[in-house]
Amino acid sequence: MAVSQDYKMGQFDFPRGWFMIAEASELGTTPKSLRFFGKDFALYRGQSGKLVLLDAHCLHMGAHLASGKATYIVKANQQLEGDSIRCPYHGWRYDSTGRVDDIPNFDGPCPKNAKLNSYPVVEALGAIMMWHDPEGGEPDYPPPTLPEWDDQRWINGVYDHLGILPIHPQEILDNMSDSNHFGPTHGVPPEYFSNAWDGHIYQQTQGGFRQEYNAYLRTYTWYTGPGLLISRQWIGPERSCELIFHTPVENGTVQVWNNVAMKAVNEPPTAEDHQKQLAFQQLVLDAFAQDFDIWTHKAPALTIAALPSERNFVLGRTWYRQFYNPRADAHDYHAKIQGEHLLPHLAQPPAEGYLRDHLG
Ligand code: FES
Ligand SMILES: [Fe+2]
């Protein structure tokens, strides 16, 4: 297993950014135990509805705030009080900022510096997302928005949980600039292809004939930060949005989710439209499985034997490294890659109006 240091990512083992950590529907009234970025977390929805994410291990004697099911306080559903949570071992209570604000059988004031780390956490696109920052800073960009997700004429899918892949997320990011894999891996050799980089956004525009379906496939795909990919896709008459979210678990492994929203034929959508969305999500998943198949068995590409026409690999890797290094240095990475990078052999412009209609 190759880790961040093997890829020479930079100063940090894990990147800065917004990351999916759970599906919103997975979080009921009990706290959920999570592990990402080589750390354990406790996630819960406070009684006001506020989402709270804290380091998992109690400052008293290290009990996990969210992993047990057997203790009395958990079974009696007494762990949450307002937006605070009690440790299931001796009942220390933590507020939503992670500060200890009540200790049972103790009259003195709570220790001043008894505070767990708490993390910015939001619900968006049916997912719960956290802000991870090795430097402990506040978010410097918002999570992605997708108007289609809130549009009644669209049907949102349910997340496919694709499990934990034993690869570094760099290998997934490489897909964004990989014009030459579309033919052999997916059966859609691109007729045009470009990447563009703008701060924390990494874009790909491409299109080609999908042989399997006898239809033209156009995609506009973008990362918002290092772990959240959205792809608008047009294949024949169908319009869809694919969401591929991935989050490091340990240094060198990554958890992956996939989802597809699809525009319904009817308004409001009928049962038939819902069936069609399900079948379409499976088709999209099958295409993603083609990448998965490669990633699962490949050796780490610590360096890429890139052809002259594949220089976007290098630019994409430069973009990604901004998140593994101090925020103060991000502009140095931007300066190296900012702008659109066409591939000379795939540079013919897309059909008229395509960029105007679909990049907004
Ligand atoms: S270990 Fe959490 S209260 Fe004692
Ligand atoms: Fe791919």
Explain what you see:
The chain has 360 residues and is an alpha+beta fold. It has 2 domains: 17-132, 3-layer Sandwich (Rieske Iron-sulfur Protein); 147-358, Naphthalene 1,2-dioxygenase Alpha Subunit, Chain A, domain 1 (Alpha-Beta Complex). Helix content is 18%, strand content 32%. The chain contains 7 helices and 19 strands. A hairpin with a 2-residue loop joins strand 16 (228-235) and strand 17 (238-248). Helix 5 (312-321) runs antiparallel to helix 6 (330-337). 34% of the residues are buried. It binds FE2/S2 (inorganic) cluster (FES) and fe (ii) ion (FE2). FE2/S2 (inorganic) cluster is lined by residues 58, 60-63, 87, 89-92.
In short:
The protein is α+β, with helices and mostly antiparallel strands and 360 residues long. The chain has 7 helices and 19 strands. It is globular, with a radius of gyration of 22 Å.
Biggest β-sheet description? 9 strands, antiparallel
- What is the mean pLDDT? 93
Total DSSP helices: 7
- State the separation between the terminal residues, measured CA to CA: 39 Å
Radius of gyration: 22 Å
Low-pLDDT windows of residues: 355-360
Overall domain count: 2
Keywords:
single chain, 360 residues, alpha+beta, Rieske Iron-sulfur Protein, Naphthalene 1,2-dioxygenase Alpha Subunit, Chain A, domain 1, 2 domains, 9-stranded antiparallel β-sheet, 4-stranded antiparallel β-sheet, 7 helices, 19 strands, disordered C terminus, binds FE2/S2 (inorganic) cluster, binds fe (ii) ion
